[in-house]
Specification:
This protein is an alpha+beta fold. It has 18 helices and 17 strands. It folds into four domains: about 1-155, Alpha-Beta Plaits (2-Layer Sandwich); about 255-315, no CATH class; about 320-480, 2-Layer Sandwich (Alpha-Beta Plaits); about 480-604, no CATH class. Strand 11 and strand 12 form a beta hairpin. The longest helix is centred in the first third of the chain and has 26 residues, at about 75-100. The radius of gyration is 28 Å and the shape is flat.
């Protein structure tokens, strides 16, 4: 007898998204992927290859999602589900204890018991089994997903009652690991008060491990057992938001000068490349105040020298302070995987295998696309689902390439029940200051992804927002492609790249963007639109012409120069009109403001 078996590990969102550092985000994702990988390998140990077929995900995928689906033959599937649940929880416990051991923290038996209580009550594991029929796979798979949803709605959990200061990262569990600030000389701040009233800063002193001389945990930061395990899980250092922001800038500085600058600090931090962070309180060195002051003066002089380094005759200036976080996701993946678009439902199993194969290939390619120039860093690529940090210089090239490489499920050789159905993907993008709280940036990235998927109820779009350090927020959203004439499409990312290049090469002053803001914001109607397209085009062209800085070449005739100038003005006008005509004027102006912000260097 055959059964369809689904196994999933939760919670995903809190496990990955509760992050204060990029390291937390990366480690949470990696840890969840490895737990699923361990479960799959354990299943293969129990069941022979002839009696097991893994449907999803692809076994060769380097980063797996939080679930797998398999067909199991001639085994007691209930015992398998129970054994895999026990194994996965035990594996998580082993990982946590291994992390604790590698951190070289001497713990008491009582502390280890408290630590494991947090670890063992965290994971929520669900598994579903339905008798399998090769000829009725579509209905069985649909029933499988439905039952999983019903079980998750019940939300069975093991309660962990704790009183005391909560984790700086998740805010749910008690602090078990703490790094004191310079002002905290004793452990008394964690002693339980005698009157029985429990202040949020207090827990029992014998339930806290005080961390010293470890850069992975910040001064004044307290972590629970789960968040400690995530933070210290991998020895691979994930680049900070500060490093992502300055990667391109940093490459312009000679290696010997960089080494000299960084080696003078006992505990170097990438934030020291920003002058405002060179203050005495930030330096973790044992020297007296006068030596610290001298170090800061020397470091600031070096930074001034870096700013004056010239590339192609231009000084590189101060380092940029903003980076991008993107969340890329396939559209209608539930419908594709469930076979909703498949005409012959009996082909669903083969169809899913083909989709899984394509998604695995896309995930592997996405890592190359994001990291090939060293300008970005992939957090995870779980098939269609991607999260990554990017330097702003490569933002639009990367997301354009990801969308272009996304697999076309309609071309897998299966007959679909809709002729014009096509697989698509959407992307949420947030541009944020390197000091912005990562949890807030993640929240906005999810919001932008939902915004992209809601545009005109069609999805296949991207939404972008800038979270300025001043508190201002500017957002815009567009479809990847727009039809400009019958069967002729214009790629919106290419238009954006063209505009950025135009601003960079100095052919046009960005003043026309400010002038558009000034003139047309007054004409918004109640829907924040302005639909007099011919008037808008005429005024847009006038403003662009007014801002044109194109100069006559030495060997160019006046007539040729005027023709070239006219062509450039018309090209820029036509490109911008495509975005305007397919959007609201507010959205259009917001997009121009975002691009101006990226390229102007006004990134305070």
């Amino acid at each position: 007898m055959e059964h369809l078996f689904l196994f999933t590990i939760s919670p995903v969102q809190s496990f990955i998204a509760q992050a204060r550092k990029t390291q937390d985000l990366y480690a949470g994702s990696l840890l969840l992927s490895e737990l699923i990988d361990f479960a799959i390998h354990e299943l293969k140990k129990i069941i022979s290859s002839t009696n097991l077929k893994l449907i999803f995900p692809n076994e060769n995928s380097s980063h797996k999602p939080n679930r797998f689906v398999a067909i199991i033959k001639d085994y007691d599937v209930k015992k398998i589900g129970e054994k895999l649940t026990e194994f996965t929880k035990k594996k998580f416990e082993e990982i946590a204890l291994s992390v604790l051991k590698k951190s070289n923290i001497n713990v008491t038996p009582n502390f280890q018991r408290i630590f494991l209580n947090q670890i063992n009550t965290h994971l929520q594991i669900y598994w579903i089994v339905i008798q399998f029929d090769e000829n009725n796979y579509y209905e069985i798979y649909k029933n499988l997903e439905s039952k999983l949803g019903s079980i998750k709605n019940i939300r069975a959990f093991e309660q962990l009652k704790e009183l005391g200061r909560k984790c700086s990262l998740c805010g749910k569990r008690n602090v078990l690991f703490y790094k004191k600030t310079n002002d905290e000389k004793t452990n008394n701040i964690f002693v339980k008060r005698k009157d029985g009233l429990l202040n949020k800063l207090y827990v029992r002193s014998n339930e806290i491990m005080f961390i010293e001389n470890n850069s992975k945990i910040q001064d004044g930061e307290g972590l629970c057992g789960i968040c400690f395990t995530k933070r210290f899980f991998t020895q691979n250092e994930f680049p900070s938001t500060a490093k992502i922001a300055i990667i391109t800038w940093l490459k312009k500085i000679p290696d010997d000068k960089k080494s000299k600058f960084e080696n003078q600090f006992k505990n170097f931090n990438m934030q020291f490349y920003f002058e405002e962070n060179l203050i005495i309180d930030k330096l973790s060195i044992s020297e007296n105040i006068s030596k610290k002051e001298q170090l800061i003066l020397d470091a600031k002089r070096q930074l001034e020298e870096f700013y004056k380094i010239k590339i192609d005759g231009n000084e590189i200036g101060k380092p940029p302070k903003y980076y991008a976080l993107i969340m890329f996701d396939g559209d209608y993946m539930g419908k594709w995987l469930s076979g909703k678009y498949l005409k012959k439902k009996e082909e669903l199993k083969d169809f899913q295998s083909k989709i899984t194969e394509k998604l695995n290939s896309f995930a592997n390619n996405s890592k190359k696309i994001i990291e090939q120039n060293g300008e970005g860093k992939l957090v995870y690529a779980g098939g269609d689902d991607i999260l990554a940090f990017l330097n702003l210089n490569y933002l639009f090239a990367v997301i354009k390439n990801l969308r272009f490489k996304f697999p076309e499920f309609e071309k897998l050789g299966f007959e679909l029940n809709e002729i014009d159905i096509k697989s698509t993907a959407s992307c949420g993008i947030v541009i944020a200051h390197y000091k912005a709280p990562l949890s807030e940036v993640l929240k906005w990235t999810r919001i932008m992804e939902k915004e992209a998927k809601s545009i005109d109820n069609q999805k296949d779009a991207f939404a972008i927002t800038v979270l300025k350090h001043s508190g201002d927020i500017c957002s815009a959203k567009f479809h990847w492609n727009y039809e400009v004439t019958n069967d002729t499409f214009q790629n919106s990312i290419k238009i954006i790249e063209y505009l950025i290049k135009t601003l960079e090469n100095g052919n046009f002053s960005p003043a026309f963007i400010k002038n558009i803001n000034f003139e047309f914001k007054k004409l918004f109607n109640q829907e924040k639109t302005y639909r007099e397209i011919s008037i808008f085009r005429t005024e847009l062209k006038r403003l662009i012409k007014q801002s044109c800085l194109i100069k006559k070449n030495q060997n160019e005739t006046k007539e040729d120069f005027l023709q070239r100038k006219k062509k450039e003005i018309n090209t820029l006008t036509n490109h911008l009109m495509v975005l305007y005509s397919k959007s609201t004027i507010q959205n259009f102006i917001s997009a121009l403001n975002i691009l101006y912000f990226i390229k102007s260097g006004d990134q305070k």
